[in-house]
Amino acid sequence: MKMHAAGSLLTDHAMAGPAVETGVWSKAKSLFEIVRSAAYAVVRWQRHRRNIGELQRLDDRLLADIGISRSEIEEGVRLGRWSRHNPDLDKLHCVVE
Predict the structure, then answer these.
(1) Nearest CA to 75 among 40, 48, 38?
(2) Residues 82, 72: contact at Cβ < 8 Å?
(3) Would you say the pTM of this structure is higher than 0.85?
(4) Which residue stretches of the chain are H helix?
(5) b/e for 56-69, b at 16 or more Cβ within 10 A?
(6) 82 with 67: CB under 8 angstroms?
(7) Where are the domains of the chain?
(8) Residue 48: which residues within 8 A CB-CB, separation 6 or more?
(9) Which residue has the higher pLDDT, 91 or 61?
(10) pLDDT tens digit string along 38-67?
(11) Which of 12, 18, 58, 97 could form a disulfide with 62 if both were Cys (CB 3.0 to 4.6 A apart)?
(12) Distance between CA atoms of 52 and 76, rounded to whole angstroms?
C-alpha cells in the first residue's frame, strides 16, 4: 500500500481542481490588488491634502516656530520631513526608519 502526504493525494487524484481555476483566481487576486492599491492611493492623497490645508491655515510665525516656511508645506507633507531648515529632524527620521 502506497502512503501519501495530504497534498500529494489532492495532486495525484486531481481533487485540487483544474488548472484554469488557478488562472482565474490569479487574475481576480491581481484585480483586487490593483483596486486596493488605488484605494490606498486615494486615502493617502486625501490625508496629504488635509494635512496641507491644516498647515496652510497656520500663520507665518507658527510655521517659523515649527521650522518650515509656507513654500515648503506641500513638499514636507509629501516627503514626511522638513530637510532644509532642520537637519536634526533628518537625523531623527533616519533613526526611526
Answers:
(1) 48
(2) yes
(3) no
(4) 6-12, 19-56, 60-66, 73-79, 87-96
(5) eeeeeeebeeeebe
(6) yes
(7) 18-96
(8) 77, 78
(9) 61
(10) 999 999 999 999 999 999 999 999 999 988
(11) 58
(12) 9
Task: Pick the closest to residue 54 from 42, 40, 41, 68 (CA basis).
Answer: 68
Tell me the backbone φ, ψ of residue 69, rounded to 5 degrees.
Answer: -105, 165
Neighbours of 82 (CB within 10 A): 20
Name the nearest CA neighbour of 77 among 97, 60, 59, 54: 54
Read off the DSSP letter of residue 84: T
Dihedral sign (CA 38, 39, 42, 44)? negative
Query: Which cell goes with 22?
Result: 488557478
Residue linked to cell 509656507: 70
Q: What is the pLDDT of residues 5-27, one digit of tens each?
A: 555 555 555 555 555 566 777 88
